[in-house]
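Hi F.,

I've been meaning to write this up properly since the lab meeting, where we talked about keeping a consistent format for the predictions we share between groups. The idea is simple: the sequence comes first, exactly as it goes in, then the structure tokens exactly as they come out, then a line or two of notes. No screenshots and no reformatting. I'm using this chain as the first example so we have something concrete to point to.
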Amino acid sequence: MSQTLFEINTPGVDAEKLVAEIRAAVEKKTGEGVYADARIAHAERMNLAHLRDADEFLNFYLKCLRDAVFVDISDFPIRERRRFWGPALVALKKVIWGLLKFYTYRLWSQQNQVNGLLVTAIEGVDQKYAAKIQELERRVQTLEKQTGTVSKVYPPPAAPEATKDWKGA
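Output, unedited:
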């Protein structure tokens, strides 16, 4: 029962060719560094279709956490779109920002420390349990060889690997 409920297409348009052209253009621009901007790179990393299994997803998620862990504490321009009250509002906002900057920076820097420690702890727990699971899988495999039984539940253990990016490279 592999019938499609509905299909959207346009006569005369080769969707596969169009997708291939788009992917080639993106690959070319990525090679040229056009997509080096963090927002574009983040959107590209969010393409979850490339994630094949739970381990790959967890590695991807931990990498995203590591990339996004720190709060940006740099100054920002204060702007106002309203013409009549604009200059007065900008001046007021700058005074308020000047008064609150000390407290805000202190709070943000503390939050950055906590975020960094939490991500490091999560990565440590993940690595610890991944190593423990691999060791248990090796032990099961050794016991199966000794007893002559074969388990269909556990695949052969893979060698420990560093955290992969979303492409698995």
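Notes:
The longest helix spans residues 86-147.
The chain has four helices and no strands.

If this format works for you, I'll send the rest the same way.

G.
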